[in-house]
Amino acid sequence: MTDVLLAVGTRKGLFIGHRRRGAWRLSGPHFPAQAVYSLAIDTRGARPRLLAGADSAHWGPSVFHSDDLGDTWQEPARPAVKYPKDTGTSLERVWQLHPAGPAAPEVVYAGTEPGGLFRSEDRGETFELVRALWEHPSRERWVPGGGGLAVHTVVTDPRDAARVTVAVSAAGVFRTRDGGAGWEPSNSGVKAVFLPDQHPEFGQCVHKIAPDPVDHDRLYLQNHWGVYRSDDAGATWTDVGGGLPSDFGFAVAAHPRRGDVAYLFPITADIDRVPAGHRCRVFRTSDAGASWEPLSAGLPEEDHYGTVLRDALSVDDADPAGVYFGNRCGELYASADDGDSWRQLASHLPDVLCVRAAAVA
């Protein structure tokens, strides 16, 4: 069985899991008492690099990196992510850390609150603000969602490093095709059910986007009400939420190799925000959203209230693929067979905020 590195960010530190010869070992917390909202495992170099966006109540947010699978961590002497003085703002949180594709092996993106995108060209040690998105003409009309105003998702096209898609809460989807020099809203077909005009150019509350591994023009989107698919790289979106117990949720992840396969964790909303039907179930599509099947073998059968946040559902790149999720009850679950069966790796962790996994040598 493939060895896997698992990183779990919680409200009170980072936990590192290693699967070797089929056995799991979990250690931590790293960054005790710090909330870890963003993680990345960058496997593009000779050695994997881990990136963590940790948030100290005393020192503020920072980006750390590790080149020894999480045994030790380095923090830049100067803040890695910092808003220029002329913006009149300061960093509140790093919500997303995303290594770009193989066409840009040193590039890492950071999505931040208040609604900024930063780019690094040294694998996440220093970052610069992407000015064109920060200064987009629509920005003054962006409205914070329930979790704030944040660039929380970054998707890069493996065919072309200049093609980047981001999701902003609650401004919607924006795309660039020229490396960040120009950006356009890309929300056609996505509803904003909470607005008088439910189909605005921007203003949707997108919760997460995941790219298909085979059809690089195909994206899956979990919205604040609504599950969507795009077959044209985000230019237009089609509702594929039929057959789900709820089309509200926070997380979506795509299989690392199999086309048309994606995973969701439906939530009852807007008042409850607990698992749909009080059941702990991941839903999988194998036909690009035409149908959905519940996956629950090995998961709790009794009433369940553990909500899965937008970055707390993840896949690795092993074969078969591992699927992982953590919830706000501090439970961590793993599947080693594409989601067909599950086991609990941990319980009583702090509130799980994000999960990342990758096969490692």
Quick synopsis:
With 361 residues, this protein is an all-beta fold. It is built from one helix and 28 strands. The chain starts with a strand and ends with a strand.
Describe this structure in words.
The chain is mainly β and 361 residues long. 1% of the residues lie in helices and 42% in strands. It has one helix at residues 131-134, and strands at residues 4-10, 13-20, 23-30, 35-42, 49-56, 60-66, 93-99, 108-113, 116-120, 128-129, 150-157, 160-169, 172-176, 184-185, 206-211, 219-223, 227-230, 238-239, 249-254, 262-268, 274-275, 282-285, 293-295, 313-315, 323-326, 332-335, 343-346, 352-359. Strands 19, 20, 21, 22 and 23 form a five-stranded antiparallel sheet that branches. Strands 3-2-1-28 form a four-stranded antiparallel sheet, with no helix packed on it. The radius of gyration is 19 Å and the shape is globular. It starts with a strand and ends with a strand.
Portion in beta strands: 35-45%
Write down the overall geometry: globular
Q: Gyration radius, to the nearest Å?
A: 19 Å
Q: What is the makeup of the main sheet?
A: 5 strands, antiparallel
User: Which regions are unreliable across 5 or more consecutive residues at pLDDT < 50?
Assistant: none
Taking the alpha carbons of the first and last residues, their distance comes to 12 Å
Element-by-element helix/strand order:
EEEEEEEEEEHEEEEEEEEEEEEEEEEEE
Helix content: under 10%
Query: Structural class, please?
Result: mainly beta
Average the pLDDT over all residues and give the rounded result: 96
The assembly state of the depicted protein chains is: single chain
> How many individual helices?
1
Strand tally is 28
